[in-house]
Amino acid sequence: xxxxxxxxxxxxxxxxxxxxxxxxxxxxxxxxxxxxxxxxxxxxxxxxxxxxxxxxxxxxxxxxxxxxxxxxxxxxxxxxxxxxxxxxx
Length: 89
Known about the structure:
This protein has 89 residues and is α+β, with helices and mostly antiparallel strands. The protein is built from two helices and five strands. It has one domain (2-80): Alpha-Beta Plaits (2-Layer Sandwich), CATH 3.30.70. The protein is 26% helix and 42% strand. The chain has a five-stranded mixed β-sheet, covered by helices on one side. The longest helix is centred in the first third of the chain and has 12 residues, at 18-29. The protein is globular. The N and C termini lie far apart (27 Å). 31% of the residues are buried.
């Protein structure tokens, strides 16, 4: 079953390659969508794919890459946009 979510990751998540490694993990899991730095210092994402894979990517975001310090991950239901790749913006 497909699932789409929108996430906001708060903490020390910019300047630590969070977007790059999220893209690597998304590729490994077969998840499509996007991730972007926001002006307020958070990272936002839109993830689409099989429910188990999307859930695994959200769980990965709760820790992120080694230099990151994730404080919170807010997850909201998303609209399936039919993304065919994963983009780091």
